[in-house]
Amino acid sequence: MDQSTPLSPLLLAHRSIRRFKPDPIPPDLIERICVDAVAGSSSSGNLNTFALILTEEMARREQLYALHMEQEMILQAPLLITFCADMHRTRRWLRLRGARDNFNNLEGFLVAAYDAMIVAQSVALAAEAAGLGICYLGTTLDACPEIADFLELPETCVPVTTLVIGWPDEDPAKRDRLPPGCYLHRETYHQPDDSAFLALHADREVKGWARYRSMRPEMIEEMERLGITSLAQFYTSDLKYSPQRSEQSSRKIYQLLIDKRYLDRLVREYSNAY
Prior knowledge:
Elements (H helix, E strand, L loop, with lengths): L7 H5 L14 H13 L10 E6 L2 H10 L5 H4 L2 E8 L1 H9 L9 H24 L3 E4 L2 H4 L1 H7 L6 E10 L13 H4 L10 H20 L4 H8 L5 H5 L7 H17 L4 H10 L1
Antiparallel strand pairs: 1-2, 2-4, 3-4
Helix pairs in contact: 2-6
């Protein structure tokens, strides 16, 4: 007898929603989604090294709207959840119970960040199962120091991602994903030759190129001005993920990890070595 739970329909129905109705989400539904998501998520050592910061007040959402590059859906949806890599709570517990301090290091950050991302995806699935729509905010990394200050995050607690959650006011087409040949590897990592590699990406090249060129009328002009002739070029252009912007964000993340004492010892040891 097949004992599997029919999760595939929910997964296949996923869409990133960017237009929301202003209708509130019942508080008991929000709490149930979060509590169930945590109960159903794996956690390293069962330490639960994450923090979920719920933002519902419009005045505070307006401030996060500014920090997240003024994305309109933040003002439309009734709820934002910022997921944080939180070793502060665990380290406080260690201290209060007379244990040695630990986890204020790079491994501690990675463990907490992975824990937070696992819970974030569980919250996303639970919200979609309840009929809500969600969208991840990659801008969390771009503004992580400012968001950390705004949320008053303590030492060894940093934001890693954010979910916008609300009742959908659109029904966008489902985005295609890369074919399994791009990401499924058996036993070892396999690399096809260049022609086979490009063939695996051919459908994405065509559909992604058409999508971005149709987003707004001036997009084609901007692409031509920048000399962009392919989807790959678009992805590292100033219109999408420029190397300069990625470098700036990387420096901000690195500095935040130092300021929040995740990399304190590593930086000190590295400095002393020279």
